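Tokens for Endonuclease/exonuclease/phosphatase domain-containing protein. Go.
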Amino acid sequence: MEGYVCYRADHPTGRARGGAVVLAKQDLAHYHLHTVTSSDTQLAAIMVETPLGEILVAAAYLPPNIPWNRAEFDSLADSRGTALHEALTPCSAQVLATGRPTHFPYNRQSTPSCIDFFIFKGIPNSVLSVREEYDLSSDHLPLLTTINTAAQRIPKKRRLVLPGSNIQRFKAELNSLINLNTQILSVEDVDAAVQTLLDQVHAAAANAAPAHIYSAPTSQRPRTFSPILEGLLALKKRLRREYVRTQDPTIDRIYRRIANRVRKELIISKRNATDTMLEEATADESSKFALWKLSSRYKRQAAPKFPVRLPDDTWARSPMDRAEAFACNLEERFKPFETASHARIQRVAQILEAPLQMAESPHKLPNDKRWLINWPKILNELRLMLGHCVGGVHLLGLRQVFSAYHKGP
């Protein structure tokens, strides 16, 4: 937020949950005290200087699912409201609230409760006021308090030469304005000459400053939303305010439909604005935006994760379980063809597991006589086979060779 200093106390897990924040204007006289970022408490505090003295402003968040201990509220047997009262009474602190519930659960069986309040001490009640903020979209009503006192402002530093000023023009203007023949006869003349010199320096700096580009106020800037979207936003705020006041389930259903419509319209508006900026993008710096930031708005579609069932009839919960399920499926689908005999398969497995199985030839294995080749006998069988053929050139196929091999030994 431009013009503000942000003091954050995020949840230690880094997720979008809990947390507290304090925003202070840059021109306010303040300083940062400390920050608490534990799992059960998130707190950010600053000290602001006012005519009433220094006022400590802090924002704290306590998750409802963690019980409040004795060190914080000095009570365990009583309810949280009573424990809070007993903890604030000894230190003379007071609670500032509207007296009405701030949390309205969507479950009709639940009871509205007050979970937003202020704790103050040493500040007169006459300068404090609190009201509910209906415009924000949440399941509870935020509270807005006002301290009716003037805070001390940090004076703005007056810069003589602005960035982008023409220094040569500044020198020329200053030389033309300075009068070195000024007569000084008294103390008043010295003060007047000094003031004249300062005025001349500021006048020369103003003439050498760059041209100021007028920026319309925020209220006068043209809106980027369409009239339909503006009407939906206004209707959403009115429905939210009416539902908080009446707790009517019919209004709640209408509010949810309008909120869903607003969300879709915002997505479409953002997409159209991004497309327009991409169409107007150029290769130079006239685009006034970074192309890589603009292209990062187009998110890739996440890969779908289909449910996978394990062999034990349970669902896979982790990537390791999915990999194991696919491995079992592949093992069942891809099996070797059983074309050879069982003894042959065992023999091949024995040869493959033997050391240096590639170094020896199969015919050197003496334990298996089937691998011993009798070449003269095979040639004799081939001659007998060719003797029954007609004269000429004959080509021997693998079937004839294997037949002679099996008859050879």
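The beta strands are 4-9, 20-25, 30-37, 42-50, 53-61, 94-96, 118-120, 128-132, 143-147.
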